[in-house]
Specification:
By secondary structure, this protein is α/β, with parallel strands linked by helices. It is built from 15 helices and 15 strands. The protein folds into two domains: about 170 residues, Rossmann fold (3-Layer(aba) Sandwich); about 160 residues, Rossmann fold (3-Layer(aba) Sandwich). A seven-stranded mixed beta sheet has the order 3-2-1-4-5-6-15, with helices on both faces. α8 packs across α11 and α9 crosses α10.
């Protein structure tokens, strides 16, 4: 069955669906950029969950950010009447905007159902073999990347390309606000008055992905090596519920590492713009570091670097064998030492621009 995607029209009203998580939202921004560059007059709305919404609010390439009420819908799961009311309210909100095209970048039943709920006559998503939970049943036009084991950034760009969005560029547009710049500079002045190169250590993962975590004692040993051998300041950042984990790493480092105060996603992005290196697992903060141009030492365990690694030069990937503990602190230090400059990094105003053709010479294009 052929359900080939067709190009957008300048008058289209487009709903982009990528609800979460943070890393997945970030890796959809290059596709958004291609669409906006090719079709500057289309109305672009993005529906997203609360966790990543702060990254999109006020984004210069998005006309409207819509909130997906995950908590409210989850709370109504045991009550059919409340669930029906929640979905009806969401349906009204979406249909009032008269979308003509819904783009399902997520490829799950939930995202495809949202596309259907929107009332958009064109619902574009990934075809069989490239999506989950039979979501292709609810979409009307399909995109099938030639290579099923493709980095998620390029996979998203191929969906945009199937809609007529042209361009070789991979770029994450995530402008820094003045207040974020000032807050990041003040924070770094407090924790790093000597101006040493800052290495951001991010030990946390979601609860579902605890198997991705590198042991705290390994982070602590790496921090002590970075401080003693190359004079870097390891700065341990953490998300909600991870402060105890972060403190254990500071303790394990012999207090050579500094503990960051709690940060929002956007403040973390500002810190990463000024950091010499990011060290962490395949998580949202890793993708955020890549997105703002910070060199990444990525520690991979159960996930596939081909799909999830940071793209472009200046990054190093260490892959574990049976468990994350297989990556030794000494091995991580040798990799990090080659990435950290001897002087503090200057603030990066934009993410690097990468060539899709150079990165994916065999994967360009998609089938019907």
């Amino acid at each position: 069955m052929e359900r080939r995607a067709h190009p957008l029209d300048d008058r289209d009203r487009v709903l982009l669906i990528r609800l979460g998580a943070v890393g997945d939202v970030l890796r959809t921004l290059p596709a958004l950029h291609l669409i906006r560059e090719t079709f500057p007059s289309v109305h672009l709305a993005w529906i997203v969950e609360d966790l990543a919404r702060d990254l999109l609010d006020g984004h210069p390439e998005i006309d409207e950010v819509l909130r997906f009420p995950r908590r409210e819908i989850g709370a109504a799961a045991g009550n059919p009447l409340r669930m029906a009311a929640s979905l009806a309210a969401l349906r009204r909100q979406l249909r009032a905007r008269r979308f003509t095209v819904a783009l399902d970048f997520q490829g799950s039943f939930k995202s495809a159902f949202l596309a259907l709920l929107s009332g958009a006559p064109r619902r574009v998503g990934f075809g069989p073999g490239h999506c989950r939970e039979f979501s292709f049943v609810l979409t009307s036009e399909w995109v099938r990347p030639v290579d099923p084991r493709l980095n998620r950034v390029e996979r998203n760009c191929l969906l945009a390309e199937a809609l007529g969005a042209a361009g070789d560029e991979i770029e994450v547009i995530l402008p820094e606000r003045p207040e974020e710049e000032h807050e990041a500079e003040a924070l770094l002045h407090t924790v790093n008055p000597g101006g040493s190169p800052v290495v951001v250590l991010s030990p946390g993962t979601s609860r579902r992905q605890r198997r991705k975590r590198w042991p705290p004692e390994s982070f602590g040993r790496l921090a002590s090596l970075l401080a003693a051998s190359i004079g870097a300041l390891p700065l341990v950042v953490f998300g909600p519920g991870e402060e105890a984990l972060a403190r254990s790493i500071v303790f394990a480092s012999g207090k050579r590492a500094a503990l960051s105060p709690p940060t929002s996603l956007r403040l973390l992005a500002s810190l990463l713009r000024r950091a010499a290196l990011f060290v962490g697992a395949d998580t949202g903060p890793m993708h955020l570091a890549w997105g703002v141009g910070c060199p990444v030492l990525a520690l991979f365990g159960p996930t596939d670097p081909r799909l999830n690694a940071p793209l472009g030069p200046g990054h190093v990937i260490l892959k574990a064998g049976g468990s994350m503990a297989d990556i030794t602190p000494e091995r991580a230090f040798e990799a990090a030492r080659g990435l950290v400059p001897r002087r503090p990094a200057t603030a990066r105003s934009a993410s690097p621009r990468l060539s899709r053709a150079a990165l994916f010479p065999r994967a360009a294009g998609a089938g019907p």
